[in-house]
Design goal:
Helix content: 40-55%
Structural class: alpha/beta
Distance between the termini: 90 Å
Largest sheet: 5 strands, parallel
Low-confidence stretches: 1-19, 51-88, 492-520
Mean pLDDT: 84
Radius of gyration: 32 Å
Shape: elongated
Strand content: 5-15%
């Protein structure tokens, strides 16, 4: 018995000293599992820390953001890439170190804001900052509550620019908290500034405050003297990235089909609306009561700085919108067919039927979106002037002839867009000469045949053909507007033909608009 007990004890001791194969395997499995868990925890901890840092330095580690390390050519202002349709493969996001966040509050009507958005994107690209989807003006004369996404396709806007600049719908949470606590800087940039102003004055403010809010954006970038890549990016945003919502585009295409069904059509941008007349102080043809009403309105809006205006002098200087009576004479003098469809791209004409009588008599086929469409089609657009203006913009682009009666923002931006589409016919009226000729004709000192001959002669070379922008140093308001004639983005006029919208993407993809790369991107 003693021997058996001793043998059993020895066997037990051997088992303790030499574990079984199964025990060894279990031990190894346990150690491997612990190692994996520990590694996973460490990796997630690192990623979370990198994401937190990313809110300051810019890369979107967990959300597909570009790396915060600067690419070898990040100091260069890369040439804008092609506009990409949703169906096409997305271009890779541009890699750059984020210098901060740019918030933008646009002011003015649709086309003033449109040009401002193009400017702000180009500036953000140059400064290597992240731009937040711009806020539209809701406090102007029109009181339009529309948001960016109510007018433009926001997803297309963001994705089409991903190869150039990071665009976010809103600030990241950490930056948003800074804004809520007042830890940001807000200011209006100086009008007509060149790019050195933004590099030397604005970029340091972005770096210092992390979030910069530009609260006025109209005409804040110069027309001329900018790097070629900046000019081309302004065009890319305007003609490629600012696409209207599907609802606006579908309704706009329906109006165009209705017009096309009846043949060629002319779009008359008859800027004879109450706000324009009050702002400009132009009262030609108005009654005393109407003139007094317009004056009261001008004084009621503090941001309209010019209050005392001599309507007679201003009209004689060619600074007033043409009246419906004046434009009726001009169209007749230009031999526009009486049966031509004329689409009125405008809001409510001041003076109503009384002021439109002569134009309607001369051209009975006058139409508006309100007469072509059912009230139910426009119910969602009511009290949304910018969305209504977007419809007029679409129809204006596709017209056979575009005739603006005043050189406001819509007139200029549509003019430039039609140049980009192949120098489509745009009659640019010489208002100063026209009012002088009209006055002579109405006083019977100029016969009709001579009046018509002079009108045709003066406008023979004012049809939106290829030309160079007029540059006036130190007087940017008086020189030609970039968006009216974006010559840096136009094709060789000798090769020009009519374009279809589908060709825009091909134009960019073929690289026809690219000429060179230029240094200058902020680091």
């Amino acid at each position: 018995m003693g021997l058996k007990a001793a043998a059993a004890a020895g066997l037990k001791a051997d088992r303790l000293r030499f574990p079984s194969v199964a025990a060894v395997a279990r031990s190894r499995m346990m150690r491997l599992w612990v190692l994996r868990v520990t590694t996973t925890v460490l990796l997630w901890t690192c990623l979370v820390q990198l994401t937190a840092v990313g809110e300051t330095w810019g890369p979107r580690v967990l959300r597909g953001w570009p790396s915060c390390r600067m690419a070898p050519d990040a100091r260069r202002l890369a040439v804008p890439g092609p506009v990409v349709d949703r169906e096409a493969a997305l271009l890779p996001k541009r890699i750059y170190r984020n210098n901060g966040y740019l918030m933008v509050s646009c002011n003015g009507g649709l086309n003033q804001m449109r040009a401002a958005i193009c400017d702000m994107v180009a500036i953000a690209r140059y400064l290597n900052v992240t731009v937040i989807v711009p806020e539209l003006d809701k406090t102007s004369f029109w009181n339009d509550p529309s948001e960016f996404q109510d007018i433009f396709d926001i997803e297309h806007f963001i994705t089409s620019l991903r190869s150039e600049v990071r665009v976010l719908r809103e600030l990241p949470p950490r930056m948003k908290r800074r804004v809520e606590l007042g830890m940001f800087h807000s200011m209006p940039p100086i009008s007509w500034s060149d790019i050195s102003y933004y590099h030397n004055q604005i970029l340091p403010l972005v770096r210092k405050h992390k979030v910069l809010h530009l609260n006025r954006t109209d005409a804040r970038l110069a027309n001329n003297g900018l790097p070629l890549d900046i000019q081309k990016l302004r065009c890319r945003v305007n003609y490629g990235s600012l696409k209207f919502t599907s609802q606006i585009e579908e309704l706009g295409r329906r109006v165009i089909r209705m017009l096309r069904k009846n043949g060629p059509f002319l779009v008359l941008h008859l800027r004879y609306e109450m706000d324009m007349l009050a702002f400009s102080g132009c009262t030609e043809g108005c009654t005393r009561e109407e003139a007094d009403e317009l004056t009261r309105m001008r004084y009621a809006y503090p941001w309209w700085k010019e209050k005392v205006i001599d309507s007679y002098v201003k009209r004689k200087d060619g600074l007033c919108p043409l009246t419906p009576e004046e434009i009726a004479l001009v169209l007749r003098a230009l031999d526009i067919d009486r049966n031509m469809q004329i689409y009125i791209a405008a809001g409510e004409i001041y003076g109503g039927k009384r002021r439109m009588a002569s134009l309607t008599s001369a051209y009975p086929n006058l139409v508006r979106k309100e007469t072509l469409l059912e009230p139910s089609d426009l119910r969602f657009f009511q009290n949304h002037s910018s969305q209504m203006a977007a419809l007029d913009y679409m129809v204006s682009l596709e017209s056979d002839t575009f005739v603006p009666t005043y050189d406001g923002n819509m007139a200029k931006v549509v003019e430039g867009h039609r140049r980009f589409m192949g120098f489509k016919k745009t009659i640019l009226l010489d208002r100063k000469l026209i009012v002088d000729l009209v006055d002579h004709y109405k006083s019977s000192s100029l016969p009709w045949d001579e009046f018509s001959k002079l009108i045709k002669s003066v406008h023979a070379n004012r049809m939106g053909s290829s030309s160079r922008r007029m540059v006036i140093p130190d007087k940017p308001k008086e020189e030609d507007y970039f968006y009216a004639n974006p010559q840096e983005c136009l094709r060789d006029p000798d090769l020009v033909r009519a374009w279809h919208p589908e060709e825009f993407s091909l134009f960019y993809r073929e690289g026809l608009w690219l000429e060179s790369r230029k240094d200058g991107a902020a680091t």
